[in-house]
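Key result, reporting period 2: structure in, sequence out.
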């Protein structure tokens, strides 16, 4: 049985708590590793060591820190296959999907190569007689990132890239369900030239999370997960005087207008609704066709596509559409919600509740499901299912359709499929949701823009990656200076390169 510990001061160390969590192979249901769960004392010790290491790292010029990011990009590309295989083994994603997980994180690291430009402040010459004023962006010090199981490469990289490039030390607390890839990322950071102690990976559960929130040295906390936990972490972190960005659940709507290309919309819904077994905060889980004719056409286009989906372990080849969900508890919750949809009167058009994969009967596989005639009072509409379940909510008009998305408590992502520019512009301008797609089903912004939801999908003023990330991981210091005139030094004739 593989034993996984923590990454502290540039090396793997065993846990001392005596507590562990099982790491499953979701395809077989077997325990393939045990990961140590840290105590508060272990977490506090890792923070103290990080704080010491951060002093020199924060004083390193941002150009040099950017070079570490540049080296990390090369190493991530070198080890892409190895990272993807480890990710798929613990999470259950297909290999192409796992590579996408790494790639979207890698792109944020690429953006962070330009850390020097992102760290620039402002300057005012002659603000008064002989007085200049300037501002500096400086690192917070030690920060923490608490990351989810569903993107064990992307979300840690989204956090560690800007945080480290800005000169902070980071405590990374990954999900205990799939901890191997975050530990591998830490090793790659060391190989890229990151000094020991600047990145600490502490595995743990709620005890470790609470220790992070209560540790006085930690100045900022980033979190991605469910809304109740996001709200809990945001509330406790800010109550303790920390900066916090916390991203929660989602119920993403895709509106299909009568003028949309139905075949294109159906293809988009298949990938956005069932990719990664629906375990994405940007998955489209609600299709809102406008008009019964549109809804009937969409349903007719979706059913054969769903019935052809290949559900299998990642080892079955690159033509697998999606694999298992992460745990048996996740599978049970998905099936519970599906049953509630039937009990509450929705039409289960594609029913795979009895899905079983030969040879993998103990795995956590859930077949694809399609509901029609879902109403907004049903649990399958109100709750985030986080599984391969697509619900159709029929709307009589554009106003009714946009109202569904706007009235829902979550506001992470949304999309509209239409050929009409006026409708698309109105939708983009009016919708109260953080990320919007126009004929794009999963509108995840690229690394140089910023990622974040509204309403109960996001807590905090600053989003992930892009310029917001450098604002989050730094604070501004403003200097007013005045120098007596007439002080001169001798000339210097050598052009001195930066050390």
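The corresponding designed sequence is given below.
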């Amino acid at each position: 049985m593989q034993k996984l510990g923590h990454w502290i001061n540039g090396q793997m160390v065993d846990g001392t708590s005596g507590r562990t969590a099982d790491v499953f192979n979701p395809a077989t249901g077997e325990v393939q590793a045990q990961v140590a769960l840290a105590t508060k004392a272990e977490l506090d010790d890792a923070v103290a060591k990080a704080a010491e290491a951060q002093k020199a790292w924060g004083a390193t010029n941002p150009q040099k820190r950017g070079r570490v990011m540049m080296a990390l990009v090369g190493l991530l590309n070198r080890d892409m296959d190895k990272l993807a295989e480890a990710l798929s083994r613990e999470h259950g994603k297909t290999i192409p999907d796992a590579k996408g997980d790494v790639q979207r994180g890698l792109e944020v690291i690429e953006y962070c190569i330009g850390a020097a430009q992102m760290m620039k402040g402002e300057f005012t010459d002659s603000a008064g007689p002989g007085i200049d004023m300037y501002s500096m962006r400086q690192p917070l010090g030690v920060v923490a990132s608490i990351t989810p199981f569903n993107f064990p490469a992307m979300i840690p990289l989204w956090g560690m890239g800007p945080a480290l490039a800005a000169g902070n030390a980071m405590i990374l607390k990954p999900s205990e369900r799939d901890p191997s890839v975050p530990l591998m990322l830490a090793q790659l950071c060391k190989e890229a030239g990151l000094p020991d102690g600047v990145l600490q990976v502490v595995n743990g559960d709620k005890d470790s999370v609470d220790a992070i929130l209560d540790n006085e040295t930690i100045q900022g906390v980033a979190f991605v997960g469910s809304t109740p936990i996001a709200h809990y972490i945001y509330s406790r972190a800010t109550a303790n005087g920390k900066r916090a960005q916390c991203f929660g659940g989602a119920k993403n709507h895709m509106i299909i207008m009568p003028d949309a290309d139905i075949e294109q919309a159906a293809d988009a819904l298949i990938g956005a609704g069932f990719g990664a077994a629906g375990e994405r905060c940007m998955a489209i889980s609600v299709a809102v066709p406008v008009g019964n004719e549109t809804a009937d056409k969409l349903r007719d286009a979706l059913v054969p596509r769903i019935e052809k989906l290949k559900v299998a372990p990642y080892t079955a080849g690159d033509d697998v559409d999606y694999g298992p969900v992460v745990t048996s508890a996740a599978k049970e919750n998905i099936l519970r919600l599906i049953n509630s949809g039937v009990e509450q009167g929705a039409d289960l058009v594609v029913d795979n509740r009895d899905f079983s994969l030969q040879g993998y009967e103990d795995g956590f596989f859930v077949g694809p499901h399609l509901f029609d005639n879902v109403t907004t009072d049903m649990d399958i509409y109100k709750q985030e299912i986080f599984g391969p379940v697509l619900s159709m909510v029929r709307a009589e008009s554009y106003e009714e359709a946009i109202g569904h998305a706007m009235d829902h408590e979550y506001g992470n992502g949304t999309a509209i499929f239409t050929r009409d520019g006026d409708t698309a512009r109105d939708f983009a301008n009016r919708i109260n949701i953080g990320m919007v797609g126009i004929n794009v089903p999963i509108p995840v912004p690229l690394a140089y823009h910023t990622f974040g939801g509204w309403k109960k999908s996001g807590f905090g003023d600053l989003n992930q990656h892009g310029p917001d990330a450098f604002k989050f991981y730094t604070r501004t210091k403003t200097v007013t200076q005045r120098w007596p005139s007439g002080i001169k030094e001798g000339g210097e004739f050598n052009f001195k390169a930066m050390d």
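The domain at 2-248+457-480 is CATH 3.40.605.10 (Aldehyde Dehydrogenase; Chain A, domain 1). The chain has two domains: 2-248+457-480, 252-438. This case is discussed further under Risks and Mitigation.
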